[in-house]
Design brief:
5-stranded mixed beta sheet, about 15% strand, elongated
């Protein structure tokens, strides 16, 4: 799908095409598109000379620290509503079952918190979740359960 990047150019111009304004740029992109499309990440990557992975990382980092509540392991999962990505809602159910917490809640022992966001800027890795800033992508229910079991057992590597 080819996009018209006029709006992105306007956003870049507004922020002076400066790397230091990446978070502001991403916020404006998200307002414009309701998510951060992969094509726009690639466009920004070229325009700002920033690797796409760093742009995904900045978007994810910003999302992580703008949400509450927090557990020892803060789990963020894209709810897929912005880009209609399938699979995210089923992963939320898996996480709820595995750690016993619903979006917006923290477990009683304060070990896990879960929140869903409209966009993690990681569509290329969808379905994806972020745990304490680390992106886990291309998830299946089985892979998600394995990751959460390791965290519950204290093996966060």
């Amino acid at each position: 799908m080819e996009r018209n990047f006029e709006k992105v150019e306007e956003i870049l111009k507004k922020h002076g095409y400066e790397k230091k304004n990446l978070i502001k740029i991403l916020l404006d992109v998200q307002k414009e598109y309701r998510h951060i499309p992969k094509e726009v990440v690639n466009y920004l990557s070229v325009a700002l000379d920033i690797p796409p992975a760093k742009i995904f990382g900045v978007a994810t980092f910003y999302a992580q620290f703008s949400l509450k509540p927090k557990g020892e392991y803060t789990i963020l999962i894209c709810d897929g509503t912005a880009c209609h990505m399938e699979g995210s809602m089923s992963l939320i159910k898996v996480i709820e079952e595995e750690v016993g917490v619903k979006p917006g809640e923290v477990t009683q022992d304060l070990k896990f918190s879960l929140d869903k966001v409209g966009c993690l800027g990681a569509c290329a890795l969808a379905p994806a979740m972020v745990i304490n800033g680390e992106v886990y992508g291309n998830l299946t229910p089985e892979k998600t359960k394995e990751i959460l079991r390791k965290l519950k057992e204290g093996d966060d590597r």
